[in-house]
Amino acid sequence: AKDAGRNRLAIYTQALSHAAEQRQRLEQELRQALERQEFLLYYQPQVDNQGQIRVLEALLRWQSPHRGLVAPDVFIPVLEDTGLILEVTRWVLQEACQQILHWQQQGLPWRVSMNLSPRDFQQADLAGSVLDIVQQTPIAPSLLELEITESVLLDASAQVQDSLARFKAAGIPLLLDDFGTGYASLTYLQQFHFDGIKVDRQFVDGLPDSPQSVALVRGIVTMAQHLGLHVVAEGVETAQQALFLRQNGCPILQGYYFDRPRPGNYWSERGNATYPA
Ligand code: C2E
Ligand code: CA
Ligand code: CA
Ligand code: CA
């Protein structure tokens, strides 16, 4: 019995060090990925009730020579833990600004929204460094939107509030991402200068059949309208969901029903053709 216990411990220790090793390898590969420029942006459209693209959300991908195309859920937590996310965010921002400029020169009047990590807000002068980059590109700051998750507001330090106020003052719209999954209240949103919210996919999933989802989405849309906040629904996968949302005061929709995230040049070539309304 003693031996069996020792064996289990040995196996457990082995598994732990294996996990630690894998994690370290991933971290090492991500450092190289930055140097070797293996990151790229995909974009997914937000479509209005005329079927026109209004905004494209920039979504990070990693083209790894060993792993293939890697989705952000796998590597963003590691970038956050190591602090590498700060550099990646800068890169995403530069890339997004160039893409806005490029589309503008093509006569495509699209905004680009990008995601900020809570970790980005721990940086001393987040707003300053973001605004520097935006001002280096000849685009209107209002063509960029920033998506922020509720966890950022949980630590509503003076530093966070200052950054949010400066984005707002510069004319950069702020959206609260994954709305409904965290703790933020709608009045909180006004206080922090948000322009809109993105209703999380988990509520859209249940439409139009789940009475809870129906009640929640209607409630969120009504309150948001009273507070003058825009509402975007994400994760729209079916025609029924799109119809329900449009009939219930949510005209801007994002999801596989319209299109998946795709590289920037795909959208350049597609141009401003509309989606069937
Ligand atoms: P998110 O910001 O909530 O982005 C929406 C996610 O839902 C994307 O996953 C998108 O591909 C996916 N999605 C869109 N429409 C549908 C749909 O109809 N059905 C389903 N099932 N999924 C849909 P993705 O691209 O894998 O990104 C995952 C998360 O990684 C993002 O969630 C965001 O939190 C984070 N992320 C992505 N890019 C960045 C970035 O540049 N910086 C930071 N900090 N985070 C990022
Ligand atoms: Ca987002
Ligand atoms: Ca989201
Ligand atoms: Ca999410």
Automatic annotation (TrEMBL):
The chain holds residues 516 to 792 of 794 of the full protein. Residues 23-275 form the EAL domain. It comes from the Bacteria. Residues 9-36 form a coiled coil. It is found in: Cell inner membrane. This is cyclic-guanylate-specific phosphodiesterase.
